[in-house]
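Check the record.
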Amino acid sequence: MNGSKESANGNDRPGATAAFPYDRTTVELFRETFLRARWNDDLKAWFVPFVVAASTACSQSDESRGAYEQSCT
């Protein structure tokens, strides 16, 4: 996911975007993981608010956390 501080509609909201080829199973898994993710038609990408992205990453097990570990402590 890419960090983003501005959405295409002009709202300054901290968060991250994720873009990947459409696949129904992938989209379902992504939406189950990031419940507040919203599709941004202008960006052609999913937008995940920062608080949700950070808390989801921090809730992962220690083995899968890796790079997120510093931001979770």
